[in-house]
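step 4 of 6: structure.
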Amino acid sequence: MTLGFPAGFRWGTATAAYQIEGSTTADGRGPSIWDTFTARPGMATGDPACDHYRRYREDVRLLSELGVPYYRFSVAWSRVMPDGRTVEPRGLAFYDRLVDTLLDHGITPMVTLYHWDLPEALQAEGGWPNRALADLFADYALTVHKVLGDRVRQWTTINEPFCAAFIGYGNGDHAPGIRDEGAALVAGHNLLLAHGKATQALRSAGGEQEVSIVLNFAPVLTDVDDAAHREAARKFDFLHNRFFLDPLLGRGYPPELLADLAHLGTLEPAIADGDLEIIAQPLDVLGVNYYAPARAVPLDDPETDSNCPLPGLRGMDVQPPRGELTSLGWEQRPECFTELLLWLHEHCGGLPLVIAENGAAFEDEVVEGRVHDEKRVRYFAEHLAAVHTAIERGADVRGYMAWSLLDNFEWAMGYTQRFGLVHVDFETQERVLKDSALFYADVVARNGL
Ligand code: FCB
């Protein structure tokens, strides 16, 4: 049976600058927080990653061979403005060439302005807990728009502010590696403010651009349906799934969430008059990243800190994932994807949704020139079917970007986690299409499963 997708459904693949580009000192690029963070002993770095900065033409040819019409990539702030402020024309010229090359191959570019790689110079000024970064980000957005705005219509301000703020400044597992729960909340607020100001800047530039932000969501599961478990799930859900979303929708931070975080004492003082209006700029679409659900359990003592990586949560914990896991240890639950999309459709009042990332890491091997990644094929098939079900049940989902085009630098996990449709040999930089790439190309060609 064929599951057909709506006419005009946007099929794409996604990548991020630091995960694929390499060439971290080329053409005047300045260091980003990921260069500094990965200079720690024993860590893999973003050089050479997929050497995409030099091989982008080959990669665009691959995209074109696959016949996937949209491509989501990110611009590295530290290439375009090595110190966060001063323009480096050679850095901008790279993205200019990339956009032209994509368009020459009939591929529509979708630009993400921030995928976690803050210029180190701005971290030296305090990083995202410093609200001055919001204005600098808006200047940067406008600078990129001036060069690409005549050809790029789809703009995403920020990818997963949750990870940038809570993992970067809360538990410190990501760059800049700071462990300060109170500062993490302020970073989250300032990222939202940066999004709002950048959105205003992009809109002021005129044109017909579509502006979005990309958020990551984790539906919360519990074993027991009682008041204590529901409250544990509520806490996790509000911080993970609504801290960023509700202010964007013009509803401010949910009062329950503010109460959950009150003991840290940092969030409310960081919200200046007028911030919530700036954050609530109308969005054209919401970018949705979904990989896996979370599992919540109550703690007896409501004052006990949670072991989960979200800053400020108390009285609940997360439980280990179950069932079949990906190589990153993530639980595979396509049905949660359907429910998430239906919930978002309702919660966001019908705002169009685009899946900006979905995919899975598995241990792949090249055998006689092929990569038979059945597990990834199954993951995509099941999750695309889940998206289809959500659309049938009324969710307004306009597109799907597979994560990722290439095996790449998976942040703190280095090169150990392969998410690509295309296998990359990091010694030789040879690219080999996996079976999942052929599967996805077929889905795209038929606009259905
Ligand atoms: C998301 C990130 C993306 C990639 C995937 C696996 O959180 O946005 O860069 O690392 O996870």
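step 5 of 6: annotate
 - Residues 181-204 form the longest helix (24 residues).
 - The CA atoms of residues 146 and 232 lie 46 Å apart.
step 6 of 6: archive
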